[in-house]
Amino acid sequence: MFGGSGAESGHESSGGHAGSILIPTRFVWPYGGRRVFLSGSFTRWSEHIPMSPVEGCPTVFQVVWNLSPGYHQYKFYVDGEWRHDEQQQFVSGNYGVVNTIFLSGEPDMVPNVFPPEAPDRANMDVDNDVYMPMEAIPQASESDIEISRHRISAFLSTHTAYELLPESGKVIAFDINMPVKQAFHILYEQGIPVAPLWNSYKSQCVGVLTALDFVLILRELGNHGSNLTEEELETHTIAAWKEVKLHLNGQMDDSGRPYPRHLIHSGPCDSLKDVALKIFQNKVSTIPIIHSSSRDGSYFQSQLLHLASLSGILKCICRHFRHSSSSLPILQQPICAIPLGTWVPKIGESSRRPLAMLRPNTSLSAALSLLVQAEVSSVPIVDDNDSLLDIYSRSDITDLAKDKAYARISLDEMSIHEALQLGQDANSPYGVFNGQRCQMCLPSDPLHKVMERLSNPRVRRLVIVEAGSKRVEGIVSLSDVFRFLLGLA
């Protein structure tokens, strides 16, 4: 929202006086409009400061204004209406809901807080962010962490899965007798990584088909031949694959029959904490929300309402605490100051779990094996200097359904780079990403910014990079955030 910038000249604020320290401060309104003005306590609310659109980003307006140290309030006047930025700190005051800022008297201590990314800002653009050495950032106190965890736990325990249900929408479900090949194509065409499974005979939801299933299917079929044929996929129904999966996982009794399995699901009245714990304890990405009703006390009818995920629960947390962020002391803490995510070990650090990374010429077979063996959902792809080029995720496997690529390729011969090109324009170089597939953050980014980004259902992890070089320093996922917030090992 704002950031000190000594290289930019501003105007002297009306609240300043001769000889006082004035700090150039950049204000940004990234939400569009035709005419945008800034006003605040530093102009005694009597002056409207015009803001200019950023070159190349017509929906983003900015202005630099000199402020004296201390506490300030401000608002934006957008196309004749007073607005405030909900993504920045705000309070209710004499002028309604206003944003706030506190500037220290020492210029070197000015906080560098940046605006939410504009929709068309490149996901790889972190070159202009300010680098802050990790050693200079104090670690979060245990008391702050425990206070925040207690309040988040209390919120999750008193709110139910009803809050996850959208006002409108659809749930795509697959019949268990559908051919795997058809399900493969539907996931690709619909752009979804998971789908619930429906047993028409029982009129019940009986499971979930995920991108990991297709990773395992392609690996298993690839073990029996150099190429994956369309016919092989055609002969496998979803139900048949699930039984094969039980054999692969050793979930069969001595007679060769599968162990009795219960569907992992939640009801709409279950607490959000229970839903989150079920996702964690069962190592799944989503669980169905199912409403069961009884007919004459003997027959139960199931109604599939929604697929619950950690991103939906995180969105509820962000929405609830957005207006009372001061009650969670850790929200303003940089992510490098709290035990969060997986980081590249430093010299002499043997206790940290190593961060898996791949080169672009790594075979697709090796990449898929790593995803399964390391039990991770994605792996950064880096150059010889460990600078981020791209990321390969489990969900990218559905790109092989494009033009039936799986029928023509060998997993051992296709590289990750070639596999990713299937889902992109053939001429797209590295560093050009589609939508929100590859997202980054800095070690100095505050926790609240990381949480807001991860609450987007299309963003499952952020690659932590060094500003400028984009050298990979770590990765933080949805699971990492919840493991930290809930105090799970």
Give a topology summary.
Layout: E1 2-4, E2 11-12, E3 23-29, E4 36-40, E5 49-50, E6 52-54, E7 57-67, E8 70-78, E9 81-83, E10 90-93, E11 96-103, E12 112-113, H1 142-158, E13 174-175, H2 180-190, E14 194-199, E15 204-210, H3 211-222, H4 230-234, H5 238-248, H6 272-281, E16 286-295, E17 299-309, H7 310-321, E18 342-343, H8 364-373, E19 378-382, E20 388-393, H9 416-421, E21 440-441, H10 447-454, E22 461-465, E23 472-477, H11 478-485
Parallel strand pairs: 2-7, 13-14, 21-22
Antiparallel strand pairs: 1-3, 1-12, 3-7, 4-5, 4-8, 6-7, 8-9, 8-11, 10-11, 14-15, 16-17, 18-23, 19-20, 22-23
Form type: globular
β-strand amount: 15-25%
CATH class of the largest domain: Alpha Beta
| Main sheet makeup | 6 strands, mixed
Give the CA-CA distance, first to last residue.
Answer: 35 Å
> If you consult CATH, what is the topology of the largest domain?
CBS-domain
The CATH superfamily of the largest domain is identified as CBS-domain
The CATH architecture classification of the largest domain is Roll
Tally of alpha and pi helices: 11
- Helix/strand/pairing class, anyone? alpha+beta
Care to count the β-strands?
Answer: 23
| Total number of distinct structural domains | 3
Residue share in helix? 10-25%
Question: What's the rounded overall pLDDT mean?
Answer: 76
Task: Indicate the radius of gyration in whole angstroms.
Answer: 25 Å
The low-confidence runs, each spanning 5 or more residues with pLDDT under 50, are 1-19, 106-125, 127-132, 426-436
